[in-house]
Design goal:
Two copies of one chain form a homodimer. Chain A has about 425 residues and is of the alpha+beta class. Helix content of chain A is about 25%, strand content about 20%. Chain A has one domain. In chain A, a hairpin with a 5-residue loop joins β9 and β10. In chain A, α4 runs antiparallel to α6. The interface between A and B is large, with 71 and 72 residues. Bound molecules: protoporphyrin IX containing FE (HEM) (2 copies). The site of one protoporphyrin IX containing FE (HEM) has 27 residues of chain B, from β5, α10, β8 and α11.
């Protein structure tokens, strides 16, 4: 459906309306709800305009395709990131069986169907834009005897001077990104997928995140983060000529099993919100280089006006400061390096020191981390005015293979190719 | 607005439509969004049917009234529970000033307006059904020299044999319950209210919870919990003759400052989900006494059919087992004791032992805990088949005063009366 990340889904389109009907049928067929109720739901839907609230629940993101879902999917209200380590002794065959089970379950769940032996947590909810995205960490390859297939691009991320990383919440053999617009649908998928890992892999770390609920604002807007900024404006757009080239490994790229795939850099970045909130709005805007209210660059215009890094104020100062986040991070400052940022906010209550344990589960997608996250973070690490208000607390890099066609599973080209 | 707890909000009604327009106006007036954009939004709204997604964001729950909001308000998708302790030396005057600030801010936020010096986190979102509910713990009264006004009903809850309570996450001088259908709106309110407590009180504990997003299912349904059960069916209904009597302190009740108020029992109840999920669906249904798929009692009928505790199967066994949760918890088994359960689910990732740290932020509302939670939990503690799958990990009891009228603040009758 929509391929524009970071904007609210559109009002019910003909496609999602078709999906709504499809879903109601599928739900009935899978016996998720009593036949009578499902029938009533489907026929009501066909008779009248759909319930104004129901497009949120009834939207299904397709599981199959060239790319996995959850990369260009519009931001979802709930997310779970899970890294798992293979059980000692798990081999390539065991890993292949796990990925096969996982793909099958993800296919069922994202269509709004219940898998066998279901916990029932998502009963009577629609798919609610559920996506499940699978990735492989560097340590996976050695453990299953596939060192020869380890992508160069999975080289460990370099150290950055401001890193304060917790190894127990970093890296991992396998990665799941679960997103949905309903908290129970997301939790349901987490439980189902975790259960299928039993014996084959155990959870290494798990993080919960959130974004705005679709419909909380009716203006199609870029998301806000917990610092209050509009975040995601200058992301590559799927309509850009070079979008695919930046974000996805080409069909004939290297290694072959990564065709249509992408690399995900995951950083848990805590925000020092108490210090941040002490800055005046003007100071905050200077740190970013954009206006807080509407995201317009300080060089003028509206949110979508291109940033003019060379613009000078009447007093001779730069309109966008030398250490402003958008200057230091911009492709123009980094030999064209760019990535697709698709984050979740997180908030895990308060720390022992009384500060909020909150910030960004920053996820950057790119065809090659050396032409995306790495050079940009090197620059930000040294010169970003925002970095005083951030703590990078965990880090991971995963190879996320392309999508699969019906009958196949994600990662099959790696594990059986 | 709606006074039916535990059901999904209705499709856009004339009232919420009026609110939508009202909100767009208020937003423009408060300068939350640039004039042009707000104008466009308002006129579009007036011209055509509202965006099908926008009722979620535009619904405002009134702050003023006989009772505080957040008690009979439909379940919200996001919740924060916060207990605070007064700063050493804080007196009645300081507490009164805090409650006055808090009420003012809650009034602004719940109408979708930004308070002074705003963090901007909720900019361009509507009120999204935000509610803020204020309560006083037993320890509050001694600290501010109001021991003579301590309600009898705030007597410490008795110990229950299965309790494994963490004192650092239990009790507290003051309590905030924040609920909203958008995660950023809820977090925004949490930050704003916490900031206003600076110097006067500090956070003792804080918990995050969630419920289904309105619209994730289009059937008006009772909520599900993380065990997969429909939960909330046999709650007292606002349409019941004795609803007010059960839930709210009467206008001429004792103490006078609690008129229109209620008592909130808060229990953090972890679910042993791994053991639970090992039970067959049939065993799970016996433990509760209701069907998992649709919540119908095992004595027959549909979700809303009255439970027949005396029903006997053909083989002579009880249709609803002797230790079934609904039997042991029912008013009929507890001399009529009843409470309004209005919970949030919680999920804080995984524990050190690998088990999910997930369950129910159980909140029970009643005019008198001795005729609500206490006798029922005494019985459940001894005889409930469900208790093997639960751990009560934290507990608190708060006196939640009635609502206030414009110009007053919540708790004024206590602090100045
Ligand atoms: C919590 C941490 C961060 C916050 C709050 C944050 C916030 C923002 C904001 C508000 C913008 C402007 C709007 C936009 O274009 O999206 C932005 C832009 C950007 N950020 Fe960040 N950011 C964070 C971390 C990072 C990191 C770690 C990277 C990459 C290493 C990064 C890369 C970028 C890029 C490439 C842009 C677009 C610059 C342009 O082309 O104009 N950000 N960020
Ligand atoms: C995690 C813990 C709990 C779970 C999962 C749970 C679940 C349920 C479920 C599924 C029902 C049936 C549907 C309904 O009528 O709502 C129910 C009913 C009920 N529960 Fe619980 N419950 C829990 C804890 C408690 C506690 C601590 C109390 C009070 C001390 C309580 C009191 C009640 C009452 C009064 C009913 C209605 C019984 C009737 O009149 O039919 N529950 N609960």
């Amino acid at each position: 459906m929509s391929t524009t990340p970071n904007t609210q889904p559109e009002p019910l389109s003909p496609i999602s309306r078709r999906r709504l009907l499809g879903t109601a049928g599928a739900v009935g067929a899978a016996g998720l709800v009593a036949g009578g109720a499902a029938g009533a739901y489907a026929s009501e839907t066909a008779r009248s305009e759909p319930d104004p609230l129901s497009s949120l629940g009834s939207t299904a993101e397709p599981f199959h395709g060239d790319h996995q879902a959850g990369i260009t999917t519009p931001l979802q209200a709930h997310g779970h990131l899970v890294a798992l380590d293979l059980a000692p002794g798990a081999d390539r065959k065991a890993a292949a069986a796990l990925l096969r089970r996982w793909s099958k379950t993800a296919e069922e769940l994202t269509a709004g169907r219940a898998p066998a032996d279901d916990t029932g947590i998502a009963l009577d909810a629609g798919p609610a834009s559920l996506t499940v995205t699978f990735g492989f960490g560097r340590t996976f390859f050695g453990k299953v005897g596939l060192k020869d297939r380890l992508p160069e691009a999975l080289a460990p991320l370099p150290d950055f001077s401001a890193d304060a990383l917790d190894p127990r919440r970093s890296n991992g053999d396998l990665w799941l990104q679960i997103g949905a617009n309903d908290g129970l649908v997301a939790f349901h998928a987490l439980r189902a997928l975790q259960r299928e890992a039993r014996g084959a892999a155990r959870v290494r770390w798990q993080m919960n995140g959130f974004n705005r609920t679709p419909g909380a604002t009716s203006r199609p807007m870029t998301a806000r983060n917990l610092m209050g900024q509009i975040d995601g404006t200058n992301n590559p757009k799927p309509t850009d000529d070079d979008f695919d080239q930046r974000v996805f490994v080409p069909a004939k790229g290297q290694p072959a099993w990564m065709a249509g795939g992408s690399y995900a850099v995951v950083r848990r970045i805590r925000m020092l919100l108490d210090s941040w909130d002490h800055l005046s709005p003007e100071r905050q805007e200077k740190v970013i280089g954009r206006r807080k209210s509407d995201g317009a660059p300080l060089s003028g215009g509206t949110e979508t006006t291109p940033v003019r890094l060379d613009k000078v104020n009447a007093d001779g100062s730069l309109a966008i400061a030398g250490d402003a986040h958008v200057r230091v991070a911009a492709p123009a400052s980094n030999q064209g390096a760019a990535m697709l940022r698709r984050p979740f906010s997180y908030h895990d209550g308060f720390r022992e020191d009384g500060a909020p344990d909150a910030g960004l589960l920053f996820i950057a997608w790119q065809a090659d981390p050396m032409k995306g996250f790495v050079p940009v973070q090197r620059k930000l690490d040294r010169g970003d005015g925002l970095s005083r208000f951030l703590r990078h607390e965990a880090s991971a890099l995963f190879a996320v293979p392309g999508g699969c066609v019906p009958g196949e599973y994600v990662g099959q080209a790696l594990l059986e190719g």
